[in-house]
Amino acid sequence: MQATAEQRGKGRIRLANEADILHAAERVFARAGYAGATMADIAACAGIPKSNLHYYFGTKRDIYRAVLTHILALWLAPADSIREDNDPRTALAGYIDAKMALTASHPDASRVFACEVLHGAAEIGDILRTDLRLLVERKAAVIERWIAEGRMAPVDPRHLFFTIWAATQTYADFETQVCAVLDLPALESADISRAAAHVKTLLLRGCGLA
Amino acid sequence: MQATAEQRGKGRIRLANEADILHAAERVFARAGYAGATMADIAACAGIPKSNLHYYFGTKRDIYRAVLTHILALWLAPADSIREDNDPRTALAGYIDAKMALTASHPDASRVFACEVLHGAAEIGDILRTDLRLLVERKAAVIERWIAEGRMAPVDPRHLFFTIWAATQTYADFETQVCAVLDLPALESADISRAAAHVKTLLLRGCGLA
DNA sequence: GTCTATATCAGGATAGAC
DNA sequence: GTCTATCCTGATATAGAC
């Protein structure tokens, strides 16, 4: 007797099709960017007739925004491990692990996000300036207290976030470059594990948490 | 009596126009990506009639490749400071400074490169697998010797490059995000200096070079 | 409520003028 | 050798059929 989405006015077919379309769109946008992606590509990838995309979502931009909304929810979650009552080493290691796991499990989401920000974040700039900024401010305050208490080396906490994001997401966003240098056809989970270990070793030691 | 480009068959007008087009193209590709950039945008930005782009370069793709070629030359140069006869701290600090300076002086170049790699490096994949890979192998060997001699902490040298590239280029590629978090309208040179100091502090300490 | 045929438009490329 | 008018493909979006 739960209030299912269907009861709120969305049919089973619509729900399934919307999910398929969003999933396909993430793949296509990740590979070609917003402008490079075509409705035909997305439709083919989703196994749905081209013009149905407009029926379900209206415009290409609407699909793109829906994909980004989904990604942002994923992206803001992992910072939970950075809490005052955790010790700095556990907290930061947990955060890096969570970001690496996300990067490994959702590389296309990472790429869509990266491409959006790279081109000026026209769609999500507001969210970056509000939700993301607020999140970082709160977590930076925690890190600043740890530093004041002498529990880790003095590091600019906001820039620390930039470095952690960059160092982890590079394995999704620039996978091509990583594979070229390492002479690998693609990154396997063992490679990601090695990368995570490297990032933790380097950055934790950098924070005086070795 | 020097062998000028003009004497090799390129007129003054052509040289000036080609330079203007490449400069404009870098801006436009950085903002919109390959697919999102239009010949009309590039022409407007260069102050040249649209169809002249085809006269000077043939196709849009030819312009893109010319831009990428120029960027790659810039990108591979800074690794020179990593030499056996330098001490590790100076060498790595110099490399990070050089990468940050490049990022600050050529943010659009960084973005075009990032976007190309993000989407699979169809145009420059070969160069990444040859020139870049070779460069990293040579420099990684130097770093491995420093580690073997106990002159720095054990760090995977290839992954160290990934982290340095990511940590520095994020200030160009994801400037929008950095500005959103720091509540700045744009990154000034003072902000870049702070960022460079942060990256050096964090990564050098991470390499046991504090 | 779901799917298809069609209109409209923008953008890259070419043929030809100066 | 340099520049301009024009073509034509291909992509989004809509109107209408089932």
UniProtKB/TrEMBL annotation, chains A, B:
UniProt cross-references to InterPro entries, sorted A to Z: Homeodomain-like_sf, HTH-type_TetR-like_transc_reg, HTH_TetR, Tet_transcr_reg_TetR-rel_C_sf, Tscrpt_reg_YcdC_C
Matching PROSITE patterns: HTH_TETR_2
Protein keywords: DNA-binding
A Pfam family reported for this protein in Swiss-Prot or TrEMBL: TetR_N
Domain HTH tetR-type, first and last residues per copy: 15-75
Residue ranges: DNA binding: 38-57
Name assigned to this protein: Transcriptional regulator, TetR family
Species name: Noviherbaspirillum suwonense
